[in-house]
Amino acid sequence: MYGYIYLIKDHWNNKLYIGQKVGDPNKTTYYYGTGIIIQKVIKKRKHLLSKRILGVCNTKNELDKAEKICIEFFNVRNPIYGYNISIGGQDGFFTGCTHLAQSKRKISLAVSGSNNGMYHKRHPQYIIDQIKQKNTKSFDSIKTQIENTGYKFITTKKQYKNMVTHIDLICPNGHKYHVLPYAFLKGNRCKCETPRKTRMPYAHIQNECIQRNYQLLMSESEYYQIKKQSKMNVICDHGHKVTLNIQNFMGGHGCTICGRMKKNENDRRTHKFDDKLKKQIIELYNNEYKINDIIHELKLPMSYNTLNRRLIEWGIK
Asked: Over the chain, what is the mean pLDDT?
């Protein structure tokens, strides 16, 4: 489930409001919408509002279409019947609409002249110097600073303009990297370097393998690649080559083949068959009884897979 369509009813005047919300309706019981008009109504008389779920959707497109259909069906854009302004289905309530010329003039007057926050003001000199310094570093100084970190500078002198134009680099691992110069100098690096900070250190995994007598088949460079590495190949202490989840392995889990073998051995110990019971199972199976029916008929304390393995071992199946 991606989201749901809800209907708000104002019992003071019986007007409606329809909206969409991403998420589970049970977790957003008290969400009543973010429309301009409905927000004013919520502040005045939230106790007179009731909410009803009209339906749930699995994708964003389905949610947008459903909202448009519901708004049109209930005619809630009409001020007589509802509080909706837009046709619905957009990311914002004003998407796809334009201001009237009168509204544009009001907005312009509200932010111009003495109403502007920077009217008759200027930035302090230290901020102006910072902006100048940020934008006026030479090509040679930027190139030397970046290449000292081990990155290869690809952008030519003609392509470089200032500190706020993107440049192309190649990281030490050979990945092409597109970044702003001032962002790089602040510490923004290629994605292949970021996982080192967030992932479990490779040395911890290596030490765990040594303690449990496992042979790790994944190198350090493979572990710290761009894509998140969640699995690893190992050879267990019994010589089985398997792929294991790293988090599960560090939590105490081991070789899946050894685990299955141990489980089968435990099954053999716990589910021993005497000759009489074995004959009954064989007779029922020869009479075209299904395995689950045999378990139910004889009330055997075992699963389908356990009995199926026994039949294969006996050479019947």
From this structure: 83
Whole-number percent of the chain with pLDDT over 70: 89
Residue 63 and residue 127: Cα distance in Å, rounded? 46
Q: Name the more confident of 288 and 214.
A: 214
In total, the chain counts a number of residues equal to 317
Residue 53 and residue 63 in contact, taking contact as beta carbons nearer than 8 Å: no
Residue 271 has pLDDT above 60, yes or no: no
* 8: Cα within 13 Å, side-chain hemisphere: 27
Residues whose CB falls within 8 Å of the CB of residue 1, separated by 6 or more in sequence, listed in order: 24, 56, 57, 58
Amino acid at 226: I
Q: Are residues 225 and 290 in the same domain?
A: no
Same domain, 12 and 74: yes
Binned at pLDDT 50, 70 and 90, residue 97 comes out as low
Per the structure, the complete domain to which residue 304 belongs is given by 271-313
52: helix, coil or strand? Answer: strand
pTM for the model: 0.35
Q: Is residue 158 exposed (0-12), middle (13-18) or buried (19+ Cβ within 10 Å)?
A: exposed
Residue 22 DSSP SS3: strand
49 and 151 part of one domain = no
Distances (CA, A) of 45 to 127, 181, 192: 47, 53, 53
- CB neighbour burial string for 169-195, b if at least 16 within 10 angstroms, e if fewer: bebeeeeebebebbebbeeeebebeee
Main-chain dihedrals φ then ψ at residue 215, nearest 5 degrees: -105, 120
- The encoded tokens of residue 90 equal 């957009």
pLDDT at position 199 is: 65
How many helices and strands, by DSSP H and E, does the chain display? Answer: 14, 9
Q: Over range 48-71, report the average pLDDT.
A: 90
The residues near 167 (Cβ < 8 Å, ≥ 6 apart) are 142, 153, 154, 155, 159, 160, 178, 179, 180, 181, 184
What are the DSSP E strand ranges found in the chain?
3-10, 15-22, 49-57, 152-153, 167-170, 176-179, 215-216, 231-235, 241-245
